Amino acid sequence: MAEPAHSPEQEPGVRGPDGARSTQHTEGQAGGETPWSQAGPLSSSRSQRSQSVGTVIIAGLANLAVAVAKAIAGVVSGSAAVLSEAAHSVADTTTELLLFIALRRGARPPTSQYPFGYGRESYLWAFVAAVVTFVLGAGFSIYQGVQAVQQRHENLDPTVAYVVLVVSFVAESVSLTRSVRQLRRRAARWHVSWLRVARRTPNTTIKAVLLEDSAALIGLVLAGVGVGVSELTGTPLWDGIASILIGVLLLVVATTLAHNNIALLVGRAAQDAVRAEIEQELAAVPDLRSVDRLMTLQLGPEDILVAVKVNFADDASRAEIEVAADEAERRLIARNPAIRYVFLDPTQRRE
């Protein structure tokens, strides 16, 4: 799902060299309040971006504190699983830093050399973050687990490990709760479940934080079970197995995020719900008989480009086509402020 987008100040309704009508909407252009927000597109965009930055900062600080505690507990207890969780938290902290960079660089305004802005650069940094999780977190965890299984040191002291794992679980739960709350607000826009928004949102920052926090909670459970079973059986074998499972979990998360960002870097269309809204609004425009071709492109986490080849009634005058084109632009932007650029190519089909 797309979110309300940032919109620089440009004159709407400009015709390009090919005669296509284009618009880059501004703060007041959407015609006042939208059905889902009491603010205009620009303020809504700033609010969404601020929420994303806040989510990343809170998740990063939580991961940093948890990483230090886990590392100390891992050394003291001798648990491979807890040390793997420390590496997990270090990887998550690095990822949050990269996601913060993604948000800052992706939010830069368009320039003459980059007329559609830098939104897709955020996907590049998010992809790098996925690679970091893959190499730093998963690689270390699997290696540590294999070493523990092979060597089987009999020096586990789980007391400190249990305390740190419980405290870490609480900290990660706070971060996850914030991510879910933000997704619920976005889901209200589409009247769908927040899980569906999480699967389909082009905002990889929120998706990455959600997956990382969820994986962190699962990893903590795996570490706790590994330490507990090792204590009960008197062998560290299960602690090593838990460490390997944590590494596999991180591999799944990294692969999921990498695949999602690659699709967005290549140039993924807006979601079906967005396209359906566009078609619905265009169908209500007077004198617009049909949509010959509709193309959308996700320019960034909160920016959509729409290019439409529309067919007007044969008896429509030039003035009526102009009015209808303006109406189409107004409807699309008012319905979804994430639509940042609109290019209309009006034609008259001859039967």
UniProtKB/TrEMBL annotation:
SUPFAM superfamilies in the record: Cation efflux protein cytoplasmic domain-like, Cation efflux protein transmembrane domain-like
Region (Disordered): 1-47
First-listed, main subcellular location of the protein, grouped into a coarse class: membrane
Cell compartments where the protein resides: Membrane
Residue ranges constituting the Cation efflux protein transmembrane domain according to the UniProt record: 56-266
Pfam families, per the entry: Cation_efflux
Keywords carried by this UniProt record: Membrane, Transmembrane, Transmembrane helix, Transport
Bilayer topology term: Multi-pass membrane protein
InterPro entries: Cation_efflux, Cation_efflux_CTD_sf, Cation_efflux_TM, Cation_efflux_TMD_sf, SLC30A9
Source taxon at top rank: Bacteria
Transmembrane segments: 123-143, 159-176, 209-229, 241-258
UniProt protein name: Cation diffusion facilitator transporter
